[in-house]
Amino acid sequence: MIISHKHEFVFTSPLKVGSSTAQATLLGSNLLGEGDYHSGCVENIADRKIFDIADSLPTDFFKDDNSDSAKLTAKARLTHATPSVLFDMGLLTEQQLNDYLFVSIVRNPIERYISAWLLDGGGTLEGLIFKIDNGLLPQAMSFSCPKDYFYHQDKRLNNIKILCTQTLDDSLPSFVRACGGSVVYPKRIKQSAYPEWAKRHYSQWLPLKQLKALYDLLADEIEFYHLVTGRDL
């Protein structure tokens, strides 16, 4: 999560869309001004430093509890916070919700589902099929829906910019440059732990029965993805 009062934009996205790398890139690209907020990042910015959430938030944000545990809890809540959550936590005003540009990332829902279950590695195809057959949603997808990042109290935000995971390498630098920043890519600390078979497109290894089941399970998110990107899965 980033709230840039300097450039009047908010960046926040759901889990498993490439948001950690995107946030690290934005934080390292000289966009932040005094009084801007962010939820920190887990990636090294060009070997320089790790951005800490405690360096960013208002001075009274941790007035009741300044412990490391409180900061970790805040980071967990803020990292993928929706605009409504940011408003409820007092980090955005009603006027800012109306005026600021809200930037978020969407991803092919089936790829996001697979990525969420294979998080941290160790996933097997058999285990993935079991989860699909039982209609299980990974925590990363039950936590929030991509649509929530473009709405506040069921009303679509006035100014939105949609980035797509598949084209992030082009669209994110373009956004940084449009804000007057210099693109600085992060050094990955945690590499992908995908098994080799999962690095191929899912149509090449996921049985048709389970693929059809995913279309049903993720129907709402797939509909929204089509609506905002015009892309096929």
Structure description:
With 233 residues, this protein is of the alpha/beta class. It has one domain: 3-Layer(aba) Sandwich (Rossmann fold), CATH 3.40.50. The protein has ten helices and seven strands. It has helices at residues 19-27, 68-78, 83-88, 94-99, 109-117, 125-133, 139-142, 168-178, 208-217, 219-229; strands at 2-4, 9-11, 37-38, 101-106, 151-152, 155-156, 160-164. A five-stranded mixed β-sheet has the order 3-1-2-4-7. The model is unreliable at 45-50 (pLDDT under 50).
Question: Gist?
Answer:
The protein has 233 residues and is α/β, with parallel strands linked by helices.
Relevant terms:
10 helices, alpha/beta, 233 residues, Rossmann fold, two-stranded antiparallel ribbon
Helix content: 25-40%
Overall tally of structural domains: 1
Corresponding CATH architecture: 3-Layer(aba) Sandwich
Share of residues in strands = 5-15%
How many helices does DSSP assign?
Answer: 10
Largest sheet: 5 strands, mixed
Mean pLDDT: 84
Series of H and E elements: EEHEHHHEHHHEEEHHH
CATH topology: Rossmann fold
Low-confidence runs of at least 5 consecutive residues: 45-50
Strand order of the largest sheet: 3-1-2-4-7
Structural class: alpha/beta
DSSP strand count: 7
Which CATH top level class fits? Alpha Beta
C-alpha-based Rg, rounded: 18 Å
C-alpha termini separation: 27 Å
Shape: globular
